[in-house]
Amino acid sequence: MIDRLRGEGIADEVVLQALGVVPRHLFVEEALASRAYDDVSLPIGSGQTISRPLTVARSCELARAGAPLNRVLEIGTGCGYQAAVLSQIAKEVYSIERIGTLLSGARVRLRSLGYHNVRVKHADGSEALDALFPLNAIVVAAGASALPEHLIELLAPQGRLIIPLGSTKQYLTEVIKLESGYDIKNHDEVSFVPFLSGVVVK
Known about the structure:
Layout: H1 2-7, H2 13-21, E1 42-45, E2 48-50, H3 53-64, E3 69-75, H4 81-89, E4 90-97, H5 100-112, E5 118-122, E6 135-140, H6 149-152, E7 155-165, E8 170-177, E9 182-190
Parallel strand pairs: 3-4, 3-6, 4-5, 6-7
Antiparallel strand pairs: 1-2, 7-8, 8-9
């Protein structure tokens, strides 16, 4: 998997090392474990998926931007895989998930595997998250049709928001917070479930 990611243009060795040590097969159902390292997204229940390794790697590489990360927020914990990868490249990881059953499973999985610098919460990305300011990066695992500017406000200067953005087509979008305003860059075309508000117990 790591050699394939290098071939796809992932150059950050810190990110590649992180993906190399996180056991992706333990984040999917046992029946799908044989496909865990293929470059595909896989179902994890509740109509959600675990992102393909390339998308996780690209998101983490863009978030890191070649520099150490202190505090990172992930929106959309899912099965916990990307949070586990982020835990290897950031000092503190905060991850929120709106679907209760996914969150419960991810929390157990992350604790049992020893990712103790990840804190998970049952919430959504539209909630007030001011207590987390300042963040070095925010990685969103859901597609938005419009830029959620309230998230940019949580970033420290030069912090990065990585989000799938677009209505007809989605692109992995990098938003860099500046002293005044922000800069925005589009990267790979992607396909994510929609960015929704509200929490779901089950």
